Amino acid sequence: MRKIAITGNPNTGKSSLFNQLTGLRQKVGNFPGVTVDKKTGFFKLKSGTDVEVIDLPGTYSIFPQSDDERVVADFVQQQLQRPDIDLFVYVADEINLERNLLLFTQLYDLGLPLVVVLTMPDIAAKRQLKTDKQLFSQEIGGIPVIEINGRTGEGLDQLYQAIESHQAVKATRKFGEHSPFDILNQTEAQLNDTGIRYQEIRRMLAHIQRPAENNRENISRRIDRIAVHPVWGYAIFLSILFFIFQVIYHIASYPMDWIDVGFLQLSQWTKDMMPEGIFSDLISQGIIPGVGGVLVFIPQIALLFFFLSLLEESGYMSRVVFIMDKLVRPFGLNGKSVVPLMSSVACAIPGIMSARGISSWKDRIITIMVAPLMSCSARIPVYTLLIALVIPDYQWLGIINLKGMVLLGLYMLGLISALVVAAIMKIFIKSTSPGYLIMEMPEYKLPVWKYVFLHLWEKVRIFVVDAGKVILAISIVLWALASYGPYHRPSEYLTEQNPTDSSSPGIYKVNDLEHSFIGKLGHGIEPLIKPLGYDWKIGIALITSFAAREVFVGSMATIYSVGEDFEEDHTLLERLRQEKKVESGEPQYNLASGISLMLFYVYAMQCMATFAVVKRETRSWKWPLIQLVYMGIMAYLAAFTAYQLLS
Amino acid sequence: MVFNKRLYSKHLYRVKYVPPKHMDLSKLETGESGIVKSLQPHQLSVKLSEMGLLPGRKITVLFKAPFGDPIAIDVGGYVLSLRRSEAQIITLMD
Ligand SMILES: Nc1nc2c(ncn2[C@@H]2O[C@H](COP(=O)(O)OP(=O)(O)OP(=O)(O)O)[C@@H](O)[C@H]2O)c(=O)[nH]1
Q: Measured in angstroms, how far is the CA atom of residue A279 from the centroid of ligand 1?
């Protein structure tokens, strides 16, 4: 087994090369102590030797400025003490060699085993930029220099060969004055050293590369005139977002329904097939629906990541960052937070997962913390039910509809709250590294479909494997709490006249929500939620919808024993309208309690999948718990205020 | 540097006001070029130097985001974007 590591600047084609080498044989772990992904893959050489590849995060130098860069610095430092990497594959963009070689000279001076891969040979050829690989190799003491097209894989054979026949070469020169790790904390020395390295690189490049004529305006610059235009820039971005959401709303619902129905049938089938008993119930009603509850998110995640990786791969993403940065900065956010937050309007899960591109830890954690405040699609059924229930039909000027305005208002409230909370968190969250936006804007490129799908596959797998476990565990607990209760004969138990049960307390299977542990819990929290205008039935629905917000509708339907499709079949709405408060006889669902409920759903973190994903992405229980608590408090306060003011 | 108008009119009205001789990247307009003179001491100056912003380097402002911030510049053939506040670290030759 050989071990190699891929390093280089961001955007040079490292991931492309990694994908070319390993195909689907990859896995994602993480580097110790930080939330940076560690991608590992495997392949076989012709000789039969197995090779393990580590894809290191892209960095510009060994002096760390962010978590990503610290990972590389630590990794290299470790290699110097206990080497276990046979070869570092240094990936450099051929059309940008000067800047790309800075990190190379640092690694070279440290005496690491290296091979240089020059990517983008196709673009270099188009620009008539010629690099003398042989001379280059001589200049660096005989280290092999190989051209590989990251998109097509042309040239890979030479890399295989280099890995196969690699032998240590002695460094023949030094580029810098200092060994990088000697000046880790000395800004002045780092500045000087970088200057000297650049000079050396320039001197070397003068021999080996004939510069292309660069005056010609390329296509990227022409596209950018529109893409960052004060009017067209935003118009284009909004149109793209609109398009993506349309597609997700319209397309994702089909596979989601199939998964729902499929798992329902599977659950029924296993129930019929297996002998009755707790084990059968656990499988058919606990585990199978739980797995379904994980898989049901896949269509949304896959579709969103399909679009996001198109935006990323094409180079458009950095333009979005560019035009949005100034607008969101006052709120403690970064231009890079915009796409994760916007994605959260479809679903917070891919939104939070895509926050990984934010290099500043502080900006990233703030983005993750506020993302679930954006109104996701799971809130729509709840909002529409409540709006249909309590908001009167009213039109202004024949076009502006009050119900529509309320829905829009709820969406805006989510957005504004996210920004305000971000601004507050900006004050409280401490950060060691400065936030910055010094970022390369890559040229526009046509995406490589294979890589788009690989990326999508990776994200879906992370969600299913890492977050899936937590979601499954929570859903089994929720199922158990909803199916079992503390008393044997619940129907007798809860007739109001006869509140005690003859059977002794224990754990019994119950047939309806009301008498389950969740039902009891709903009763139990009634005093707490009474000031919000809710009764215990709503309490039950609130607890069950921690599974996912839209479960609220289903739970209400179950509690009132009516159908849950309130848009076609009005029994749920009618039943809810008839519901009276026990003490006063007033309708339970009026404007005050309805608005209060809507506000509760704007703020409350009612989604175990998001909870699990935040845990996965921050690699700790601390942040998801903070999120759960702060959103819960906000939900309570908002609902309380609204109910008290309106009733 | 904030230029206090009242102070100026009161005490210095006979002296012609000369703007501080301090040209930095944030003051360039779109399409204008400059040559890097130095990087001011700052947490981010190493980062900037790593990106190729070193004394002697010619840079050109390619375009600016709406509201003039951030800006995108050409650094030896590639496009770098940075905030105005970050551009202020980069002093240009006069
Ligand atoms: N024309 C051309 N494009 C390439 C080549 N290699 C990679 N690309 C493209 O360059 C872009 C960046 O490639 P990535 O593989 O994502 O680069 P990376 O270094 O992994 O970038 P980060 O993941 O941001 O660190 C993608 O759009 C690739 O399709 C190449 O040889 N020729």
A: 51
The percent of chain A in helix, strand and coil, each rounded to the nearest 5, is 60, 10, 30
CA distance A425 to B6: 40
Q: Which tens digit of pLDDT belongs to each residue from A591-615?
A: 888 999 999 999 999 888 899 999 9
Q: Considering only residues 325 to 364 of chain A, which have any Cβ-Cβ distance to chain B shorter than 8 Å?
A: 325-327, 335
Could you give all domains of chain B from N- to C-terminal order, each with its CATH number?
21-92 (2.30.30.90)
Q: Residue A8 pLDDT > 90, yes or no?
A: yes
What average pLDDT score do residues B29-36 get? Answer: 91
Please give the interface size between A and B, counted as residue pairs whose CB atoms are below 8 Å apart: 111
A63 touches B at CB < 8 Å: yes
The whole-number average pLDDT for the span A626-632 is 95
Ligand 1 geometric centre to CA of A326 (Å): 27
DSSP state letters, A457-496: HHHHHHIIIIIHHHHHHHHHHHHHHHHEES-S-HHHHTST
**CB of A99 within 8 Å of any CB in chain B?**
yes
| Contact check, Cβ <8 Å, A233/B63 | no
Asked whether the ipTM of the predicted complex exceeds the cut of 0.90, the reply is: no
Q: Considering only the beta carbons, identify the residue of B44, B70, B76 that sits closest to A98.
A: B76
pLDDT in tens, A32-82: 666 677 889 999 888 888 999 999 999 999 988 877 788 899 999 999 898
Q: What is the pLDDT of residue B20?
A: 55
Give A527-552 as a 3 state SS string: HHHHHHCCCHHHHHHHHHCCCECCHH
Closest Cα in chain A to B53? A195
Domains of chain A are 2-210 (3.40.50.300), 232-428 (no CATH), 449-646 (no CATH)
